[in-house]
Design goal:
The protein is mainly α. Helix content is 65%, strand content 3%. It has a two-stranded antiparallel sheet.
Length: 144
């Protein structure tokens, strides 16, 4: 299961950086990274949020902005490395309907043997088009 999580992280990062070039920002947060002029960025800098902008993202996420909550999840996961905050914003993003977050939280619950929550969020992810969720749901059923 941990291989699956690492694969997801790799695929997401690969979707952001291709051949050493930053792709357009799919979340509309251009300017929030510490981009070095023309040089490939590290994961931490891609997901960085400046201290003065962090309260804005938090306010927007609490108000129901799924993009802001997902950005906070990425920030705490890849840049700030705060497990508690990572989980908080991942769950918020899942609750707001982000399919990737629903799948990722399902995987986390599965890894923790919390099959009830894993099945719930895996089902939501499948409903929202995450193909890998069907396999996860099968794995959860086998593990119960």
């Amino acid at each position: 299961m941990k291989k699956r999580v690492l694969l997801l992280i790799f695929l997401f990062q690969f979707s952001v950086i291709v051949a050493g070039e930053k792709m357009s920002d799919p979340f509309g947060f251009e300017g929030d990274s510490l981009e070095a002029s023309g040089e490939p960025e590290s994961s931490a800098s891609i997901y960085h949020i400046d201290e003065d902008r962090l309260p804005i993202f938090i306010k927007n996420a609490i108000a129901g902005d799924v993009k802001a909550s997902f950005k906070l999840y990425q920030y705490y996961m890849f840049s700030n490395h705060d497990i508690k905050e990572t989980r908080k914003w991942l769950l918020k993003s899942a609750e707001l309907g982000d399919a990737v977050s629903q799948y990722n939280i399902a995987v986390q619950y599965f890894d923790e043997n919390d099959y009830k929550n894993a099945f719930f969020w895996g089902g939501k992810a499948k409903e929202n088009g995450v193909e890998e969720a069907a396999r996860l749901l099968s794995d959860i059923k086998k593990a119960r």
